[in-house]
Amino acid sequence: MTTINPYDKQKGQAKLARIPIKIEPSEHFLPKPDWIRIRATHSEVVGDLKKLLRSHNLHTVCEEASCPNLNECFSHGTATFMIMGDKCTRRCTFCDVGHGRPDPLNPDEPVNLAKAIQAMALKYVVITSVDRDDLRDGGAAHFAECITATRKLTPKTTIEILVPDFRGRMEIALDNLSKAPPDIFNHNVETVPRLYKAVRPGSDYLWSLQLIQSFKARFPHIPTKSGLMLGLGETDEEVKAVLVDMRKYDCDRLTLGQYLQPSKYHSPVDRFVSPKTFEEFADFAKSIGFNNVASGPLVRSSYHADLQAAGKAIT
After folding, report:
1. For residue 293, what are the CA distances in angstroms to 61, 109, 128, 285?
2. Helix, strand, or coil here: 159?
């Protein structure tokens, strides 16, 4: 048996070898429909942005999670920064971010992040992270430090944070975030509760909802946001039930997108949801009180987040 160094970043088969519900490697894949089209964009801007990120020792979820919109967003000079390293303590079966024992937090990261945002002249930035279950507050204090450093260098930049569930440690996490609250608070529910054990091992549906509600209770003026991936085996009825739950737990904004399988070792795609169905979900979400909805096959939680924050429709 091969011994795995716990500090190594595990991807694909190595990452998913020790999950509670095993996945049989896919031998056949559902053919992608015409509406799943990713425009290939190659430009000097993409290469220059990657060089800038590396020079500041920064990671983006765009790269680590193999986002289908990477080239489009990088070409427009935007990125979703991933703080606290590139090794996650969870083994979610939908996600391509590597698993492993995380490295210690980099005390220079908040300043490096702020300098990169300043160099890119970003008016809107999304800051996310890996899960850091090894930290008592799940990394909430580090989020606050990154927000503080960014506001010091670029005070006019709008900051959205896309946070993990902090392993249910709501009070200590929110106490730390209260030191430097963001402009938009985002936490993804990801899928329906029936699929959590298979798709989000180590996570809890109620924790996610309670985190959104607890933040909103502390900061009623700050928009809350969450998202779902579709195509993991959920039913339309289950999707609508989750949307109703999100509103009950004070979620203001919503993103809905198509799940795409990162490798044959990840959860398979159960279905490709049609653009018409995405439109129907958007209509339903608006009817129950979401004030902004981005719903479409290639929508991701931070895709055109600046436009969504401005109240513009994203599909």
Report:
1. 22, 32, 20, 7
2. strand
pLDDT computed for residue 39 by the predictor: 59
Identity of residue 31: P
Q: What is the pLDDT of residues 189-209, one digit of tens each?
A: 999 999 999 999 989 999 999
Q: Which two tokens stand for residue 272?
A: 């490709």
Asked if 43 and 75 touch (Cβ cutoff 8 Å), the reply is yes
Structural tokens at position 307: 């436009």
Give the strand pairing for 80-83 and 59-60: antiparallel
Question: Mean pLDDT throughout 134-141?
Answer: 95
Tell me, rounded to whole angstroms, the distance of Cα 296 from its chain centroid.
16
Q: Which residue has the tokens 């945002």?
A: 117
> pLDDT value at position 9?
83
Inter-residue contact 125 to 116 (CB < 8 Å): no
* pLDDT score at 1: 44
Strands in 124-129's sheet, in edge-to-edge order, are 59-60, 80-83, 124-129, 158-162, 184-186, 224-230, 253-258, 292-295
Give dist(CA 103, CA 314) in Å, integer.
36
- Please check whether residue 142 is in contact with residue 105, taking contact to mean a CB–CB distance below 8 angstroms: yes
Q: Report in angstroms the alpha-carbon separations of 140 from 161, 209, 220, 260.
A: 11, 17, 19, 29
Per-residue DSSP letter, 10: B
Which phi and psi (to 5°) does residue 213 adopt? -65, -40
Q: Give residue 56's identity as a one-letter amino acid code.
A: H
pLDDT digits (tens, 9 = 90+) for 63-103: 555 555 555 665 555 668 889 988 999 999 988 888 889 99
DSSP string, 163-182: ---GGG-HHHHHHHHTTS--
